[in-house]
Amino acid sequence: MDLKAIPQRWQVAGVVSFYMGAALVMVFVNKVVLNSSPDLPLLFLLIQLVLAVVLLHGAARITPKVEIPTIELRTAKALAPVTTVNVIGLVFNILCLRGVEASFFQIARGLVLPLTIMVSSIHGRSLPSLRVIFAAAIVSFGFFVGVSPDSAARSWREAPSQMSIIYGVLSSLFIAIHAVLIKYSLPFAQNSTIQLAYWQNLGSAIMLAPFILFQGELAKLAELYHNPNWNAEVFVWGSLITGVFGFLLCVAGLLSIKVTSPVTHMFSSAARSAIQTLLGAWLFNDLLTRNRVGSILIIAAGTMFYTWVKSVETAPPPPRAAPKDDVEAGLLTDMDLHDQVVDMQEKKAPPP
Length: 352
Description:
The chain has helices spanning 8-36, 41-62, 73-78, 80-99, 105-108, 112-124, 130-147, 162-185, 193-214, 217-225, 232-259, 262-283, 290-313, 327-348. By secondary structure, it is an all-alpha fold. The chain has one domain (8-315). It starts with 7 loop residues before the first helix and ends with a helix. The model is unreliable at 322-352 (pLDDT under 50). The longest helix is centred in the N-terminal third of the chain and has 29 residues, at 8-36.
């Protein structure tokens, strides 16, 4: 179906709903599988990566818009840094989700925005504006509110472990580094986000496989297989569902770049955090304390403020009216506007 034939408002609503739905399914099905098989996190992640590669091959046979890159050693070496950072971030991400409640997951990874601002500033050797620093401070404050002890907690056992919170912070750090590396990696993938996604999934799977052997997860899988209390169907179906929805998230991300604005994306992310918290409390009986609710609200507010600040700071200035008899000045104004639009498009394009 041609997106141009659908009204703009329905395009935005459809893409946002699709993205939010796929993201929520990923988190909750991941959590169900990790609760059922907590000793197999890396194997579970490997299956998702392999499925993503297989589905990309299948999509390439259906539509020419999905191009599978040619495997070249030179390209693999050039993309090794971004692939390494990607797989490390994924491992910390799934270890964090294994150790925290679904409703707490967004809080544990609440430092993504401040760390991304910090890494980008260090890499670009430039200081962000005061408003951007203030937005990062709001989000950081929300994170520390969420991880601080709450008198409403019924027992210390219901509080997330310090190791899980550390995993969340490390996951956020590698997501931030990954966001910076994406910009410099795209040219090696012919500036195609789909080709880069293929390289990252394939490379991450290859890098992850040896660690599954070192961790002894195959032996643990054999033990669980002979355990009558283990529900293998949860692991198998959960792996298939998350693999498919992980692929759909990639598609949703590409559609989001084409149809929605950064402001819309941030508002949908805030709404997803609220829905995820409520569903976590309903499906898993997660503990909702004042600190957790306040943390989610503060992080969402800081993120939306940051989005507004960036939209204001990167907005192109109004065009100067050129005199009617000055043809050369009018031509220069049009060229300046064209350059600004191109720059805006490059800055808005997020990683897949």
